[in-house]
Amino acid sequence: MPDTGAGLAIAILPEATQACVMEEASDPAGHKWYRLGFYTVANVKYNVDGWVRAQGDAEAPGGGTRIAAATRGAPEAARSEASTPQVGAKEAFFSNGWSLDNSRSRLNFVTIKKGTVLETQKFGELAGSISPDGEAEVKIKLESVSTGIDIRDVRMRFVLFDIDQFPDATITAKIDPEAISSVFDEARMTYDLPVTLTIRGISKDLSIPVIISKLGDDLVSVASAAPVMVSTADFGMEDGLKQLSEAVGNIPITPSSPVTFELAFVPAS
After folding, report:
1. Domain spans, the chain
2. φ and ψ of 117, to 5 deg
3. Which architecture does CATH list for 98-267?
4. pLDDT at residue 240 tops 50
5. Which parts of the sequence belong to the Lipid/polyisoprenoid-binding YceI-like domain (predicted)?
């Protein structure tokens, strides 16, 4: 009965299989009641509510008992032992704040030169949080840019990003807890997230489709559902891009980059 806390069940199953857990409770009159606590399909868990009473003096379902077809409200004993803890877990999940786990997060962008040469770059230092009411902020330390070539990293830090004046880029957003509440039961959902991206002191509002995944009670992932295009013209970086091009023999560099990310959040301490 994992949902009620009355024990622990672990199963390792092939992806195509299905599994379920049945809960049992008795009311003051001695009648047995059963509830399908949850079932899984393709490794996705679905919670089920509603109790049924066993017919006559039937034994538990595992012994071949038939169960009445009509569902009824759970007996009081079952409600107190099973339903309430699950509701409490859901409330706790959304009432606590979350902190970004840099070690399990990534933010990549792709540069395009000569029109056809694609190179993937990344930022190594991210920090962020989500407050209990859904206020979210992620800071990207621009000095942590990593392209695989040291001299190019230095040029991007000081010529393109101007880290002496603008050490961080920031992403701020407001997440509606009600709108994403289904992720607690369904484990995964797509959500159109309005964000404000600020680079070099210039802010731009964007709407980004993200995939929010509940990977456990202590781990949530927020990932881009598709690449997000970021243009140097939107953040005053045209001159810096021109200087980068000149430094490598006037090789043309596309002035926009697709950005992808996967951000891991753990409960705030």
Report:
1. 2-95, 98-267
2. -90, 115
3. Beta Barrel (2.40)
4. yes
5. 97-266
